[in-house]
Amino acid sequence: QIFNQHNAEAPNLEQAFHRMAQMEPNLDHDVSWFLLPSYWAKMVVALISFLCFANSYDGDFVFDDSEAIINNKDLRAETPLGDLWYHDFWGSKLSSNTSHKSYRPLTVLTFRINYLFAGGFYPVGFHVINIILHCTISVLMVDVFSILLGGLQFSNKGRRLNLAPKSSLLAALLFAVHPVHTECVAGIVGRADLLCALFFLLSFLGYCKAFRENKEGHTFSVFWVLVSVVLGAIAMLCKEQGITILGLNAVFDALVINKINLLELIRKLLYKDKALENAGLLRKGLLFRITLLMCGGAGILYIRWRIMGTGPPAFTEVDNPASFADSLFVRAINYNYYYSLNAWLLLCPWWLCFDWSMGCIPLIKSVSDWRIIALAALWFCLIGLICQALCSEDSHKRRILTLGLGFLIIPFLPASNLFFRVGFVVAERVIYLPSIGYCILFTYGFSLLSKQAKKKKILAVAVLGILLINVMRCALRSSQWRSEEQLFRSALSVCPLNAKVHYNVGKNLADKGNQSAAIKYYREAVRLNPKYVHAMNNLGNILKERNELHEAEELLSLAVQIQPDFAAAWMNLGIVQNSLRRFEEAEQSYWTAIKHRKKYPDCYYNLGRLYADLNRHIDALNAWRNATVLKPEHSLAWNNMIILLDNTGNLAQAEAVGREALELIPNDHSLMFSLANVLGKSQKYKESEALFLKAIKANPNAASYHGNLAVLYHRWGNLDLAKKHYEVSLKLDPMAPGTKENYNLLRRKLEQLQKKGG
C-alpha cells in the first residue's frame, strides 16, 4: 500500500505509482455513493455532525458534571495548576484510598480554561467546545478512513492520495451521526473521550506522515514516529484509552506499510522457516519503529504508574457486580455478555441510558439463561470475521477486516475488565473510539452488498435512511441530555431495574420541592437494591422533614449498619435522635460522623444545636466555632453564635463575632440583622439602623427585619419611623410575634402625645 520506499531501479516514479494503484482493488468501485471533492466532503461531514448535537449547546450541567466540574476545586483559580498533575479527574488526590485513579489532567485543564473565560460555571461555553471537538474529529475521520479503506499512497510530489473518497465519506458520516456518541458530546464530562479521540487520530495521521518520502530518499521519518508517540501520550493524559493508538500504529505498520500476511507469518514462526526475513517482520525499519512505539508506550505507562501509585481504584459491587462474583465462570460469562451489549449498541443504538449499573443488567448465573444466545452470536460473528481477516486469499479484504477489527477491539481493551476492574457495567462513552472499527466494517459490508446487488440505488437509499434515522436519534437524545429531569426519566423505560435511575429521578424531584413524588422513587430504589445506602439516607431526610421520625430513624440506622463509615447518614441519624429527644444517642451519632469525616462543618453545626438545646453553651459555641473554621462561609453557625451570645447577655462578645462574620461574608443579610439587634441593645443606634436598612435592602420582604428596625426606632424615639416599619412588618406577616403588641403600645403613646399637644 505504500509506494514511497526508495527504489533506485525504478526509472519513473509516476508510472510505478499507477501500476501499483491498478493492481490494488479499489473499494470505491463497488460502492454506490456520492463522490465529492475532499474539501466539500469535509464540509458536509462537519455540517451534519453539527446538526446532530447543536441542540445540546444550552443544556445544563447534568449527572457526573456536578462532581467533575461544579464540585471540582481544580477548576478554580485559587488551586495551583501543579495540583492537576497529582489529582484524579474528580479533583481527589490520586494517593487517596477513595480515588478512582482516572488520571486526565489535560481534560481538567480545558475545564479550568472554560471556567476562567466564562467567569464562572456557565454551561454554554462547555457545551460549545464539546460540539466543536466532535465536528473536528468527524472531519479528521474523512482522512483517517481514506487511509484505512483506501491505503496509504503518495504522489511523486509527496501528497497523500485519497483512493477511497466515496467510502471514506460514507464511513465518516456513519461516525459523525452515531447516536451512541451523544453521551460524549452532550454530556460535558464526555470531553475526556473527545480530547482523547482528537489526539488519538492526530497520532495516527502523524504516524502515516512518517512514510512520506523526504528529500534524502529515506523510507521513513523518525521525527514523525516520535511525534506520534508524543501525541499518543497527550491522548492518554486526556483519557486512558489514548495509549492504545501506539498498538494500532504498530498494527497499521505491519499490515499496510509492510503488507505482512499474519497467517503466513504465524506458520513461519511455528515452523522456524529460514525465509522468515522475507515475511516482512525483519524488513528494514519495521522492528526499529515498533521498538520506538513499545519504548514510548512503556515509558508513558511507567510515568503514569509513578504518579498514580500502585493501589487499584476503589469500586463497589454495585458499580460492576460481575467483577465481584466468586465464580470465574460467572465473571467470564457476564463480561462476554457486556461485550455483546456494547456490540449491540453500535449496531442498534436505540436503547440508550446514562447509567447501566445497579441491577440494570442482572447477572447471568447459569448456562440456562437465554441471554447466552447473545454471547454465541457475538463470538460467531467475531470468529467469522477473524477467519476471513486471517485466511482470505484477497489481501485487500484481509487488510480492511484486520484494521476494522483492530480499531474495534484494541481501544476497547482498557474497558474490558481483562486487565483491571472498571467502575461500570456498560458505558456508551467508552465505545466512541471503537466505533471507528464498526464504521470500517459497516462500509466494507456495504461495498460487498453493492457489488452483489442488482439495484444499487435501493441499497444506497437504505443507507441514507439509516443516516437520517441516526441524525434524528442524535437530536432527540441530545435534547434528553439538556436537563437532569429529561435525562433521568428517559432511563426509566430503558433500565427499569436500575436503582440508580430511580434514585436520580427522586433526587431531582426532591430538589424541586416535590417530596411526595420523590419518596415514591426513593422507595423503589431501596426495593430494587436493599443495600442502597444513599437512597436510604435521602429518603430518611425527607421523612425527617415530614416529621415521620421513627421510619426515618429505621432507614438511617440500617444505612449506617450496612456502611459504618457513612458520615452523612450518621449525622442525619443524630438529627432525628435529637428531634426524638434522645440526646445522648444523638451526640454519639454526631461524633461518629466526625470520626469518619474529620472535616465536617455541617455536623459540628448540628452538634452545636444539640448542645444549645441542652444549655451547654460553651460546648455549643466551640462546636459552631469549629464549623466556621472548617467552612468560614457557614452563615448558620455564625448566626447561632451571635444569637446565643446575645441571649446570654454577652453583647460585647456577640458584637465581635458578628463583625468577624461580616468581614468573611459581607453580603449576608441574616448576619447584618443579627449584628444590628446586638448593636441596638448596646445603644449604638446609628450603626444598628444602617445595618437594618442594608439587610432590608437585600431582603425587603422579611417581616422580622422591619419589626426589629421598628423596635430600634421605638427605643431611639423616632416614633414616626417606628410606626411606618411596624405597619410594613404587619402587612408582610400579620401574625408576627410581638409586633402587633409593640405597634399597639406605640399607637397609644402617639395618641397620648397628641392629647398632650392638643
Automatic annotation (TrEMBL):
This is dolichyl-phosphate-mannose--protein mannosyltransferase. It comes from Sylvia borin. The gene is Tmtc4. Belongs to the TMTC family. TPR repeats lie at residues 499-532, 533-566, 601-634, 703-736. It is found in: Endoplasmic reticulum; Membrane. GO terms for biological process: endoplasmic reticulum unfolded protein response. Pathway: Protein modification; protein glycosylation. Keywords: Endoplasmic reticulum, Membrane, Repeat, TPR repeat, Transferase, Transmembrane, Transmembrane helix. SUPFAM superfamilies: TPR-like. GO terms for molecular function: dolichyl-phosphate-mannose-protein mannosyltransferase activity. Its main location: endoplasmic reticulum. Signal peptide: none annotated. PANTHER family: PROTEIN O-MANNOSYL-TRANSFERASE TMTC4, PTHR44227. InterPro entries: O-mannosyl-transferase_TMTC, TMTC_DUF1736, TPR-like_helical_dom_sf, TPR_rpt.
